[in-house]
Amino acid sequence: MARRLPALAALAAAALLLAGCSPAASGSQTPETEAADTGGDWPRTIEHAAGSTTIDALPLRIVSVAPSITGGLLSLEAPIVATGAAPVTPLSDEHGFFTQWADVAVERGVEVAYKDLELDIDAVDQFEPDLIIGSANGGDSTSDAYDQLSEIAPTVLLDYGDATWQELTEQIAEITGLESKAKEVLAEYDDWVAGQATKITLPPQPTTALVYMGPEGSWPFDPASPQAMLLESLGFDYQPPREEFLTEGQGGRVGILTSENAPDGLAEAETIMIVAMLGGDPVAEFAKDPLLKNLPALTSGNVYTMGTQAFRLDYYSAKLTVDLIVDTFSG
């Protein structure tokens, strides 16, 4: 009972489902005993993107049908037994686990529920989950299979496109009964970032962050985006392109800056940070664009990469991105 995504959509999804870095060390507990150590009131009813779901008891066997959300589950040490996998690309390991959290998943014994973002209802069922968590948007969306998944186990679909990774972490915690762990993880991250910020010598400000799309223009992040918030947490003065130069947004707090509008839209940015969504050297590609050659950030040599992990942030990818920025601007 497999549902195939078109090949092009699968490739695009692989590029957009970027998650993050090295995790907290995992202990020797099984998923069942880890979950059993937590508290919370049950049953609880969760309002989510696909409706309302009642979860009768603390989940002990979670299947993720959204690789975009798997990193958030791992960061909370949730009892995840299997996850859908992305296509094998330079951004994923041989299992289709994104490289940023692949080692964590393997260490904790997380299995592949199905490959290549091709949702397989029967395969999910075989893991006997007591909770299924999926996405309502993006390349790994399972909205059209919500009713089928709900016949297997309580299913919750989250809209990760319009939430910070911290907000998504809190949502996952409410669903899984790991609220205390979420507070611990988020507080640890905030303390760590504050320390990392002291190591940075800031480049000229203000700063704009974007995904460079070549002849199609750029996708700049707005001030409420996780990317902008990450930069501001490190002391950057974030400034998006002025609204009159932007066209309709991409969702997920990302706008569109056409090639024609880019010279004016980016003229006030003293520093530009580029997310390498498709890998490669985005700074070199950006610098080759003849429409952008006179940008202040380019002429002063203040265009930098934020790495590949920065497009879809969670606890792990945020830490990797901060590490890269500190390496770039420290000393």
Describe the protein.
The chain has 331 residues and is of the alpha/beta class. Helix content is 35%, strand content 18%. The chain is built from 13 helices and 13 strands. The strands form four sheets. Strands 5-4-3-6-7 form a five-stranded parallel sheet. Helix 4 links the parallel strand 4 (80-84) and strand 5 (111-114). The chain is elongated. The relative contact order is 0.15. The model is unreliable at 1-38 (pLDDT under 50).
Intertermini distance: 55 Å
- Radius of gyration, in Å, reads 20 Å
The secondary-structure element order is HHEEEHEHEHEHEHHEEHEEHEHHEH
Relative strand content = 15-25%
Count of DSSP helices?
Answer: 13
Task: Please state the overall shape, judged from the principal axes of the Cα atoms.
Answer: elongated
Largest sheet: 5 strands, parallel
Strand order of the largest sheet: 5-4-3-6-7
Q: Work out the helicity level.
A: 25-40%
Number of strands: 13
- Structural class computed from helices and strand pairing: alpha/beta
